Amino acid sequence: MKNIIIEECPYCGSTDLTKGYQMGDGMIYRDKAAAFGTVVEHTICRECASIVYSKVEKVEILK
Question: In degrees rounded to 5, what are phi and psi of residue 47?
Answer without folding.
Answer: -80, -50
